[in-house]
Write a structure and sequence with these properties.
Helices cover 74% and strands 7% of the residues. It has 8 helices and 3 strands. A 3-stranded antiparallel beta sheet has the order 1-3-2. α3 crosses α6 (111-135). The model has no long low-confidence stretch (mean pLDDT 89).
Length: 167
């Protein structure tokens, strides 16, 4: 099995610059499609993709700290604070003082935050489910391997931690 994969990988080493450019363009357009549905939902709420990402990762790791969210999102503290302030003020996220370290702030979605996160994620899951169904199981596994291989090593570590945390 590994030998077959290695043989396939050898042919991939010879992709032309034009083929790679087309792959990058496909990723850009796919990302536009992937974010279009949540963008439409958020448009009337004065929220953007940063709000969506915060909701997504808080949902995936209830009680995550602000510092952990900063690391995952790779944004400035000022930028994240601006996003969190609106989500907290609007009753979508709750910030709780840490039990062990009182300086830490642990983030949780409120019921309204969970409802909005579900609506946003459902729209993306619907699109992904249809694409994965059309592509087939081998393409899905290959797609995941390609995405993971494109991650910087420190991002891959964070990704693995998230996956393991969801068991």
């Amino acid at each position: 099995m590994a030998e077959g994969r290695a043989a396939q990988g050898e042919t991939l080493l010879y992709l032309t610059d034009e083929q790679l450019r087309q792959g990058a363009e496909a990723m850009f357009f796919a990302y536009r499609g992937f974010t279009a549905d949540p963008d439409r939902i958020l448009a009337g709420m004065s929220y953007g993709r940063a709000h969506h990402r915060a909701l997504h990762f808080i949902h995936g790791a209830p009680g995550t700290t602000v510092n952990n969210l900063l690391t995952i999102l790779g944004v400035t503290k000022q930028s994240l604070n601006r996003v969190l302030r609106t989500l907290i003020d609007d009753g979508l996220v709750e910030s709780r003082v840490g039990r062990i370290d009182k300086r830490e702030r642990h983030l949780h979605l409120t019921d309204a935050g969970q409802q909005l996160e579900r609506e946003l994620s459902d729209a993306q899951r619907l699109r992904m489910r249809a694409a994965f169904r059309d592509a087939g199981p081998e393409a899905v596994a290959g797609f995941r391997r390609v995405l993971e291989a494109m991650m910087d090593p420190e991002m891959r570590v964070q990704y693995q931690r998230l996956k393991e945390g969801r068991g």
